[in-house]
Amino acid sequence: MPINDPTTATPSEIDEELARLGVERAKAHNALDGLRTRIERLVGWNMTEEAVALRPRLEQARQSISECDEAARPLDAEFERRGGWTRAWLVLNTGGHVHRTMACRTCFPSTQFGWLTQLSGHDESEIVEQAGEAACTECYPSAPVEFRNQPSRIKTPEQLARDKEKVERAMAKAAKAITAPDGSPLHTKRYGQIDTEFTARRTYADALAHARHLTRASIAHHRDTIAAYREDAQLILTALAAKHGRTEDDLRDEMAPKVEGRWQREYK
Length: 268
Ligand SMILES: [Zn+2]
Description:
With 268 residues, the protein is mainly α. It has helices at residues 11-44, 48-53, 55-81, 124-131, 145-148, 157-176, 197-244, 248-267; strands at 89-91, 98-99, 113-115, 186-188, 192-194. A hairpin with a 6-residue loop joins strand 1 and strand 2. Zinc ion binds next to loops. Residues 247-268 are annotated as: Disordered.
C-alpha cells in the first residue's frame, strides 16, 4: 500500500511497499525488454508501421518504471535517514538460507530471493532464532549453536498471507457451524445430523411447531413422536447455548417468535 508519510511508517511497512514496487518495476522492465526486441525485429523486416504501432506500449512501460523509481525514492531516503535497519532475505529453493543481504558472497546474480519484510527492523538475534539451521553462516557468523541446530521457522510474506487466509476461512466456517457441546457432531432423532447454526435454528422452530401440531391432533396417538421432536429441540437449544455461552432461557425467548411463526405458517 502506498505510504503517505514515510517518517511514521515501520521498517516492515516501508520494505513491504518497496518489495511491491520492486515487483512492479521488474514486470515493466520485462515488458520493455520484450517490446524492444520485437521492434528491432520488425524494423529489420522493414515493417516500420508495425514497429511504430508498438511505441505507445514502449512508452507506457518506461513510464511505469520511472513511476516505481519515483515512489521508491522517499522510502529509500527514509531508510538512509534512520541509519538503515536490519533486513533479511530467503533464498527461494528447497533448503534455501536466510541472508542479511542479497550481496552475500555465497549467492549468485541468478539467485531468486524472497524479501522477508515482516522481519525488517527486528533484532538480528530474533531473525537468527527464527531462521535456525537456515541462517547463512556467512551473513550471521555469530549465530549461537543452539539456534543453528533448530529447524527453520521462517516463512515468506506470501506464505504468511496464505496462512492468515486459512485461519480466517476456518474461523468463518466455525462461526457458521454447530456441534454438540462436547464438540462432536450434533445428531438429532428426527432430522439427522445438523452442521450449521442456520439449520439448527430453523430445525428448532420446526420441531417445536410440529410437536405442538401433533399434540393438538392427538397426544395419546403421537406420544413418542412428540417426545422425540421435543428432545431434538432441547438438544439444539443446549448446543446453541454452549456455542454462544448464553443461557437456554435466553435463547428460548429469542427463538420463541420463530417457533410461533413456523406454527402459524405451517400448522395452524
Ligand atoms: Zn549470506
